[in-house]
């Protein structure tokens, strides 16, 4: 993709008085985010193999640990956004987050080079030592540092870039921002593809030291690129965060819980923000309306009568309605959690494809951790086809602008997620049957020990890519449509929170399934010897959970009515 002459003219249409910000800052910011994603995403696909082979951790424990790592990375994005908006500002948060990520990757890299930081290798009798508490602490500390870095960089980097280009005086400002977001997300897609292919291939071909060293070096370049542009950036100071406003509404509502809502005389008793586009209260969650009731004008408002003297006792109508809007979208948002959980089954898929024939050509073998490439490329291709071909065709024949409704797309995504899990279960059942027929099921599966092509896994990755394209993008559009414009920057944080919850839920399910199925000395469904276990049963369980989630989604659509 090349920048057209029109786009370049638009981007450069900035007042000459501007000495900071603008297009000259974009290489530093986008390089920081792109290299951070290549480095961190490149560590994830093969991490389950590293934990099992180097740290002698069981498959279920390793998968649970990686789910918790994913949940922490996404959950800390809320903390990063809060700290950025309320205290430190975006530049400081992105810079410190980049340094945290670099430190974590260096420590993780050291575990491949310093023998004392990892358990000794298994002996000839397959007796393996568990990691000591100190060794495990170092490993978890590296994960934690990387998670903090990701949580600080990802939610703030895109907004920091927007700060450099956003100029309300420019008549082309909207077009500039649209072009920026398109390029930003395009680079993220490309970085994900590079991470799941090139970085994973290097780990398989050259070992852990080089495979983990390259992400650390890329992260070093990421930090250097971002800091080298420091003198060019517009650095917006921190202000009050939406999170703070939500807590203020809750606290004020509790403080005024004994007030009678019917004792006032209409809107005159509610605190209005003069610059707000929201001036009327809705009937939902009426208990929160108490937060903006003016009890004593002399005490509750400042001398100008426009601002609350104590924002923890008196809130504006806009603050109350913003919180209500958030609460109204929670049910629909929660239906996405199961889809995200289905998308994050890479650990078991990697173990499965390791045992299969992964050759595309006789001289090239696809790394086991790179099969998520098919999901990412499906996502990118479908978005392009849908946006550039299907939407215009639909508009031409129906006369209605735009494509399918966000809610309909979310529903299609849920169905595709269910189908993907069912197909995963069927494929694994076939793989396991062949593995038992061709090998001793008591032996630990060897690489390429099953005479079955791993390309049979591609259809389930395609379905997952389509499920993500329909459900995730539909959810984001739904949130943008349902939330006030003042909360548009909050949409990414809400979506990221769903990914964090899915990680926690995934870890919980893995631990429960492993404990229940191995109770009384039985073989766990999620055994490290996947030929003895039953990953297919686990996938059927996830398919059932997806069916229940789809029924839950239909109930939401049936009873979710606007005010």
Description:
This is Protein NRT1/ PTR FAMILY 1.2. Belongs to the major facilitator superfamily. Phosphate:H(+) symporter (TC 2.A.1.9) family. It is found in: Membrane. This protein is an all-alpha fold. The chain has three domains: 221 residues, MFS general substrate transporter like domains (Growth Hormone, Chain: A, Up-down Bundle); 74 residues, no CATH class; 239 residues, MFS general substrate transporter like domains (Growth Hormone, Chain: A, Up-down Bundle), CATH 1.20.1250.20. It is 64% helix and 1% strand. It has 18 helices and two strands. A two-stranded antiparallel ribbon has the order 1-2. Strand 1 and strand 2 form a beta hairpin. Helix 15 packs antiparallel against helix 18. About 1% of the residues have low confidence.
Largest sheet report: 2 strands, antiparallel
- What count of domains describes the coordinates? 3
Termini separation (Å)?
44 Å
Strand segment count: 2
Oligomer: single chain
Q: What structural category do the secondary elements indicate? A: mainly alpha
Which properties best describe this structure?
Growth Hormone, Chain: A; transmembrane helix; Protein NRT1/ PTR FAMILY 1.2; mainly alpha; transmembrane; globular; POT_fam; 3 domains; 2 strands
């Amino acid at each position: 993709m090349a920048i057209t002459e029109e786009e370049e003219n638009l981007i450069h249409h900035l007042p000459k008085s501007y000495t900071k910000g603008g297009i000259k800052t974009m290489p530093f910011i986008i390089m920081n985010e792109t290299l951070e994603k290549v480095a961190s995403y490149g560590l994830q696909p093969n991490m389950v193999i590293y934990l099992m082979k180097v740290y002698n951790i069981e498959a279920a424990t390793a998968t649970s640990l990686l789910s918790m790592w994913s949940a922490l990375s996404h959950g800390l994005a809320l903390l990063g956004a809060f700290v950025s908006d309320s205290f430190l500002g975006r530049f400081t948060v992105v810079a410190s987050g980049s340094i945290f990520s670099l430190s974590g990757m260096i420590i993780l890299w050291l575990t491949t080079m310093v023998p004392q930081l990892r358990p000794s290798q298994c002996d000839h009798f397959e007796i393996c030592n568990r990691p000591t508490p100190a060794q495990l602490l170092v490993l978890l500390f590296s994960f934690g540092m990387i998670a903090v870095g990701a949580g600080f960089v990802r939610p703030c980097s895109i907004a920091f870039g927007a700060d450099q280009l956003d100029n309300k005086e420019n008549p082309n400002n909207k077009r500039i921002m649209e072009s920026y977001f398109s390029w930003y997300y395009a680079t993220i897609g490309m970085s994900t593809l590079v991470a799941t292919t090139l970085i994973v291939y290097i780990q398989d071909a050259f070992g852990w030291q080089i495979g983990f060293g390259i992400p650390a070096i890329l992260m070093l370049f990421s930090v250097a690129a971002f800091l080298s542009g420091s003198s060019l950036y517009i650095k917006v100071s921190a202000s009050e965060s939406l999170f703070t406003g939500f807590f203020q509404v809750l606290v004020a509502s509790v403080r005024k819980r004994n007030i009678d809502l019917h004792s006032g005389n209409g809107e005159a008793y509610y605190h209005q923000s003069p610059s707000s586009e929201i001036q009327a209260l809705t009937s939902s969650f009426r208990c929160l309306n108490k937060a903006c009731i003016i009890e004593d004008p002399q005490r509750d408002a400042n001398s100008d009568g426009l601002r609350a003297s104590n924002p923890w006792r008196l809130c504006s109508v806009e603050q109350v309605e913003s919180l209500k809007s958030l609460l109204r979208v929670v049910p629909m948002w929660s239906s996405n959690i199961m889809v995200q959980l289905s998308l994050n089954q890479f650990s078991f898929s990697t173990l499965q494809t390791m045992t299969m024939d992964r050759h595309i050509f006789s001289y090239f073998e696809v790394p086991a951790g790179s099969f998520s490439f098919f999901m990412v490329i499906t996502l990118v291709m479908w978005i392009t086809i849908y946006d550039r071909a299907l939407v215009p065709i639909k508009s031409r024949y129906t006369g209605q602008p735009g494509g399918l409704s966000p809610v309909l797309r979310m529903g299609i995504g849920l169905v595709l997620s269910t189908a993907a899990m069912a197909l995963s279960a069927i494929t694994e059942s076939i793989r396991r049957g062949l593995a038992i027929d061709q090998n001793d099921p008591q032996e630990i599966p060897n690489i390429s020990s099953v005479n079955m092509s791993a390309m049979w896994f591609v259809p389930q990755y395609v379905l997952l890519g389509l499920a993500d394209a329909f459900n995730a993008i539909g959810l984001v559009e739904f949130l943008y449509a349902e939330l006030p414009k003042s909360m548009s920057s909050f949409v990414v944080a809400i979506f990221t929170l769903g990914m964090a919850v899915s990680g926690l839920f995934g870890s919980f399910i893995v631990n429960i399934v492993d404990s229940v199925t191995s109770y009384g000395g039985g073989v766990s469904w999620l055994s490290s010897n996947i030929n003895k276990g039953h990953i297919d049963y686990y996938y059927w369980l996830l398919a059932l959970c997806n069916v229940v989630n789809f029924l839950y989604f239909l109930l939401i659509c049936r009873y979710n009515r606007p005010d």
